[in-house]
């Protein structure tokens, strides 16, 4: 199971929770970006993006209702 250290603190940024501004050379930078859900105040980290895409492609209908993209593409290829 994938775990993040925090979804409240960005890996790169300034101010409280690294939530002010974009990632710049003067930003605070986390030691391991794979442990953070957000890269900066606005963008998911690479690891979070991979999880999101995996859910879109093959996720259960608990999250991808009524069906995931793989199922849609399989149905579409039959027509």
From TrEMBL:
Gene3D superfamilies: SGNH hydrolase. This is Putative triacylglycerol lipase. InterPro entries: GDSL_Est/Lipase, SGNH_hydro_sf. The keyword Magnesium does not apply. Transmembrane segments: none annotated. One of its GO terms (molecular function) is hydrolase activity. Signal peptide: none annotated. Keywords: Hydrolase.
């Amino acid at each position: 199971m994938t775990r993040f250290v925090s979804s409240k603190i960005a890996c790169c940024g300034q101010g409280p929770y690294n939530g002010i501004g974009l990632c710049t050379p003067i930003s605070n930078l986390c030691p391991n970006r794979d442990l953070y859900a957000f890269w900066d105040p606005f963008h998911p980290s690479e690891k979070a993006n991979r999880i999101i895409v995996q859910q879109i492609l093959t996720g259960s209908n608990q999250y991808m209702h009524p069906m995931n993209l793989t199922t849609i593409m399989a149905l579409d290829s039959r027509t």
